[in-house]
Amino acid sequence: MTTERRFDFDKAVAELPILRDFIDFVNNQVGVYSDSLAGFYGNKVRIERQKARVIRQSGMKIDKGKPVMMHTSLEDPTSPDVIHMRITRVDDFVAANSEHGFNEQQLCRSIIVFIFAYWDEQARPAIAAVRGVPSSDVRVDALGDLRLVRHAIIHNKGILDPKEHRKMKAMAELFEPGAPISLSHDQMHKLFAMVKKAIGEIVMFYTRHLPGAPNIADIKTVAIQTGRSQE
Question: Is the pTM value of this prediction over 0.90?
């Protein structure tokens, strides 16, 4: 083994803990996403049931030629054990907690911003330090696309400018140019898969040219096992 090849091997090994932490971070976001969707759905079902139980129609009147429905609650809102955290219409609450509703989309956007921040401020500089290059020299297409999406979320009211969309190299299929960023459940899981594949590309940086190395295009997900070398 040449000195240069050994040096590359040492760098590859040094990057593994950084990438393992990044994978763990992404996996945690997958867990938060899945658990939160279950919570949103539970909220939706619970309030829909309560709506049928505590609200009854008590009358109707005509106001300026339009029918106005009147409803009466069967629960006492002045009860001392009732605490108002916020006041919202039941239908709005149900819509926000429904599939593809506001809460799910807010969560998707938050996770995208969070993942990119971890990559750009934590993992990327650490990898650059191992390689002895500026952070800007550590590039992966999918993570570069996340930068564009994050910029749209933070700086353009969640709308991906068509010019920015044309710059995307890996995730363009997930987003509509000139439209608000809005991901379905399947699209969000595809985004997670693309991020993990991007981590796989980084893992393969030193070894992709070697005989028997997997094709980067075939990588579906990545796991880095923690272990000790054997004597």
Answer: no
